[in-house]
């Protein structure tokens, strides 16, 4: 059997590339996006009842990740990037079918668009379905996962004076919480866990339309070096 699906909408998010996207939703509350609904789902009838809902499940396509039966075992970043486990024990982006799910906060509805925060979705992500989060059914107090018992411990993020001033200017221009977004994303330590870079090695990522550069002055912290428009 096979099925063919058409997206109900597309994500416009702060994440222009895969690198530095939080590995789970809600780890970066300042990560915002809008979900542009496509016809005929952009009609008010499809959104009736969402006004009082705080969170949504988004079922989406990993459109920029490889998928298929060659990914029976994966190497989750949470386990250091070297240990392999079965694909069904992981939330790795490499899936048998390129389907993902995320819980996001619904901030508002604006003319057929859903305004979201706490996202972990790449810009341009196709969304297949939207479902309301149901607290009594979706939050299981005694759930257990020994591979991910606790959220990752954040690492300290500091700024050069020049980078912080640049970030303030770009934040005002974008009218987005850019400084908080940078700190929340980098605190998850986006580099591969097996890398131990020296202070001379720089990393970079594009958030919205700005380039963020940082390095690791030592293994226990990140320092933001520059925040410049693309």
SSE arrangement:
Blueprint (H helix, E strand, L loop, with lengths): L8 E5 L18 E6 L6 H4 L7 E7 L11 E2 L10 E2 L12 E12 L2 E5 L8 E7 L2 H4 L18 E3 L1 H14 L3 H9 L15 E6 L2 E9 L2 E9 L1
Parallel strand pairs: 9-12
Antiparallel strand pairs: 1-2, 1-8, 2-7, 3-6, 3-8, 4-5, 6-7, 10-11, 11-12
Number of domains: 2
How many helical elements? 4
**How much strand?**
25-35%
Major sheet summary line: 6 strands, antiparallel, barrel
Going by helix content, strand content and strand pairing, the class is: alpha+beta
* SSE pattern: EEHEEEEEEHEHHEEE
CATH fold label of the largest domain: Elongation Factor Tu (Ef-tu), domain 3
Count of strand segments = 12
The coarse overall form would be: globular
CATH superfamily of the largest domain: YaeB-like
- Which spans of ≥5 residues are poorly predicted at pLDDT below 50? none
> Cα distance, first to last residue?
45 Å
What is the CATH class designation of the largest domain? Mainly Beta
The Cα radius of gyration reads 19 Å
Strand order of the largest sheet: 1-2-7-6-3-8
